Amino acid sequence: xxxxxxxxxxxxxxxxxxxxxxxxxxxxxxxxxxxxxxxxxxxxxxxxxxxxxxxxxxxxxxxxxxxxxxxxxxxxxxxxxxxxxxxxxxxxxxxxxxxxxxxxxxxxxxxxxxxxxxxxxxxxxxxxxxxxxxxxxxxxxxxxxxxxxxxxxxxxxxxxxxxxxxxxxxxxxxxxxxxxxxxxxxxxxxxxxxxxxxxxxxxxxxxxxxxxxxxxxxxxxxxxxxxxxxxxxxxxxxxxxxxxxxxxxxxxxxxxxxxxxxxxxxxxxxxxxxxxxxxxxxxxxxxxxxxxxxxxxxxxxxxxxxxxxxxxxxxxxxxxxxxxxxxxxxxxxxxxxxxxxxxxxxxxxxxxxxxxxxxxxxxxxxxxxxxxxxxxxxxxxxxxxxx
Length: 387
Description:
The protein is 47% helix and 15% strand. The chain has helices at residues 11-24, 36-45, 62-72, 87-95, 108-138, 146-158, 175-184, 206-211, 228-231, 247-259, 285-290, 296-302, 319-334, 343-350, 357-371, 378-384; strands at 3-7, 29-33, 50-54, 78-82, 100-103, 165-168, 193-197, 236-240, 261-263, 270-272, 276-281, 305-308, 340-341, 375-376. The two termini are 55 Å apart. Residues 141-370 form the Sigma-54 factor interaction domain. InterPro entries: AAA+_ATPase, AAA_lid_NorR, CheY-like_superfamily, P-loop_NTPase, Sig_transdc_resp-reg_receiver, Sigma_54_int, Sigma_54_int_dom_ATP-bd_2.
């Protein structure tokens, strides 16, 4: 039930607004406050989906109420109520974050349309916030081992900064999770996170993919196209498997990092971008540099912060937590009851050689859930988890 607060010092107008809203929709719960100070106290002590607030009031005017609430509960939409002489002030309140304003005496259709739109915006914002939390949780790193706790500590320190990060580690260890976590905990979290798998893009197309191209730049360039760097503007670009990037593309990435400028393939005009770069690789880049396959200057640009993700064999203490996590997720995906793993089954899985790391463990857990009994036993593991 939407909860609306009307802050208005004129009792007659308060009653009219309350009556209009109640008659329009019997699910609206309308409360009143006789001045700005009383309204602010109500907002501090309760949750509202919308506030209708007069501008000129004793004790505390509407602008002061708006500014105070935006500091403590910025998600609440405000609709300002303005007298004829307050229109300029009402318009200025929108720069301070007000959703809209209505004039006195309120026009019925205008009032109801504004209220509905403001409540829709609030609902959408709440849904987006819930979705964001759900997405963020899906990228959470599972584990309490010393290596994982060390990575979590680094992320907490590094994420709020603009420092570039190079993530290393074998395939299947969760390097992309580290990248997502860095983004989710950064000041850029509300901006795009653009992922590029450098190993999956042919070398002749990587520059176009990263920087875009103009019409006619090459045979199949039938129209202008922006690249991943432009798409990630104000956000984060994750260059996965950067060790597989061609040397010409490396040179252009280096320029983008040095100057915050890119140039589309076939164009002469520079485009300014504001992008945080996070890269990952399963290769030994020092060896790649020595053999002439990776630029040393690019390495030093990328590796401001180095995060090494351990192999699963180096964090066996986390396997029980990972099994529990995957079991719950698979049950949710398949719409089935969550199966239990016996202590003996878990102990046996901890002793396996996980060359495919977490990715392999996830596959094995799913196989055991499908093929095993109601409780996954040591026998199930020996039958279905063998390589």
